[in-house]
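Re: duplicated header lines in exported structure tokens

Our pipeline writes sequence and tokens for each protein into one text file. With two proteins the header for the second block appears twice in some exports. Here is an export where it did not happen, for reference. First protein block:
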Amino acid sequence: MSWVQIYNYFLISVHGNGKYFVYAHGNARVFDFFAIFAERIAVMPQNEKPTIMDIARLTGLSKGTVDRVLHNRGEVSKKSKEAVLKAIEDLGYERNVYASLLAKGGSHLIALLMPEDEPGSFWDLAASGMGKDRDPVLATGVQLEHFGYNPTNVESLRAAAERMLDRNPSGVVLAPMFRAGTAQLTAMLRDRNIPYVFIDSKIDDSGYLAYFGMPMYRSGYLCADQLTGGRPVDKVLMVRVQRDLEGRSDPTVNRRAGFMDYIHEHCPDCVIHNIMVNPSDMQAGERALDVFFEAHPDVHHIAMFNSRIHLLVPWLERHPQRGRRVVGFDNLEANMQALSRGTVSVLICQHPDEQVSMAVNALSERIVLGKYPARRDNFMHMDILTRYNVDYY
């Protein structure tokens, strides 16, 4: 038996239920404590682990109250919950996950509400993380289901959310493409006490369990630094994606803010131009590029704030320009190939599959074990790729 275990059993013996400890008129009197303590040590198996009953004795609460805290169900006072959590930490208690799942006689559902897109897209890559690096114990009692929606149509989001809520999920992974629609959904999730985790980006919201993704503002700041090389530039073209006709979908707004702040701070005289392109009509997008560069042939710096930089590659390769610098995001295969050829100068990458995997594991631990993530905002690394290191990524 370790000294930590001996100390923990000392606490249980002395404070457990008042039988062996009396406090009267300021004087503590311990009756035959060492005899009782020695007896406990003698009869306790060497590999014995703390039990729910040990937690109950240590806290002075009922076994039922302890069980409700462990399984996050029923009403428990804040004071009792804090006492149980403190006892769990002191005793090193670990729940038997398999036994807990079997006792509940069912499994949990984690819903992934994410856009659907064509193979090779950002969201296709993200979805590949659903079954990646899952804890085999937690996976035993947790099912995953993807509820896809059209990222250009807020009504598609609402319909997918309705289907998802009909399934009564235990937790939700969210990609907030539409800020207002997402805010309405998260309000419903909070009303139902369903924990939710943001990936890729997040909205202003006080109720989310965790976030896994880039620090959006800083990623935009980094993008501007990579585009300019830390030197003043005269003109920049920002190419943005038209996601929906009403303009309600704008998940990169904070990234764009970081980019703009860098330019204003380091290149105060820089003129920033904007072009909107529709991924479903790139012929029109290329005509817009023709018109722009005919009027502005001296623009050599181009940035795009999402994973679609590959949409520009055919036009860029038909119109090569010495000294042009192009920066985009994400390790899609089409982007990586353009980077290898030198058409794209820099990619800032984040592994969306890892975001989904981490989000699923965080929700699984919260739902099954009652554990909160160590950090609420889990900012992913921002990997800077060039044609010289892309082959090793």
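Second protein block, exported in the same file:
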Amino acid sequence: MELTELLKSVEIDSKRLAKEKTNTEKLNIKNVAYHSKEVSQDTIFVCIKGHLADGHQYAEKAVAKGAVVIVVERFIKDLDVLQVKVKDSREALATISSNYFKQPSKSMHIFGITATNGKTTITYMTDEIFKAYKLKVGLIGTIITKIDNEIETSVLTTPESYDLQKYFAKMEDEAISHVSMEVSSSALELKRVHKTAFDVVAFTNISPEHIRLHESFEAYFDAKSLLIRNAPKNSFAILNIDEPILNPLVNQTEAQVVTFGIENSSGIVKITDIDLSSGKPSFTVNIMSRLNTLNGTQISPEKFKIQLSVPGYHSIYNATTAILTALINNIPLEYVKRGSNGPELSEEIAESIVGWFNKMNIENIILTTSRSHVMKKDEVTKEELEAFLEVMQKNKIDVAFFEELDDALQLGVERLNPDDILLISGAHSMDTGAKKTLDLLKQMYPNVDHEAIDSVVGSKIIGMG
């Protein structure tokens, strides 16, 4: 691709030419990279700053490997190559990547969800609804990235912009029509989703537990709010107005806003008739005024009953977000009602984990539902557990299962041999698990360095909950 095409819409401050002033506008770029290891001949290398490293430090190495253009935030002295100076190299990387892959996100319907809790569940729900309607789907999130039936384990909740656009390009090649993706606050702050053509975005809840990568709760909220505030005029923004902090966003976006609530009944959609008696909620969705859709048609005011197969009051918010996303995408109601999928989610997680187990030659694991250490909303259902264990059994993974975290950790520590690594993975209860494990080490192995363990606990290198 010619350099001029690649740099289209990139906000350039200035350029510094190489000593041999070739016709830079006609340079043919064959590769885009933000990591020096990925550089090959005729690459444009974008220097981005990370938490641990600065790409500017690797520019010379990139040139030695074949980079012919360097995108920088500051000119690099004595580097004889065309340097393109920009204010924000992360934003430039996103724009260049989108151009390089010919803006693939525009060819499909993309749903992006941001929230402190529930992102993964909501994307799995929308994915199930789209599949029920026989659409070819993609999914990008914390656990897996999926292109139709091809699944790989995710590294980041939301990939770096080049990798994200590469996924979109692959999805376009596979004729994917609908994509569900989680959008983290970090991804928004670091411009990873810049130039992603979202059709529907949603912001459903926020709480302080994930603010460690931000300066303050306000900064965390502002980062997540970018998904709504930057949504284009032809898109839709779904907001849960039971969260008072989200309400001002109604007037801070060009997108068409769709509001819903349980406690707040002033939204376009109102949730009533909630029944939690069986543990798995049923409720009524009331569309109070005309609801526009992506193809320009309107859904008239109506109400319909929903029965979920996943437990918890919070599941009503997750399901309502998925339902509205599907309706806006013109999915008929009969298919929308099929979108709750606790066991299916558990099965896909298990299959993704097995892929890693096979690579690492792991044949047995210790599993716990941490019953006494999770909130009601995070409890694992019998159906979800059975779905997970079935995948493990099918793949000949031996599972030692405990309901209680303490029992699982006890066995893990008992099995430790010299030079072993005990990996404690999961969510919600694992901060507690880290401290309990260190305490168990002191109790069960009197000769270990107690001072070193106490130092870890005291400095909170691991979250101690």
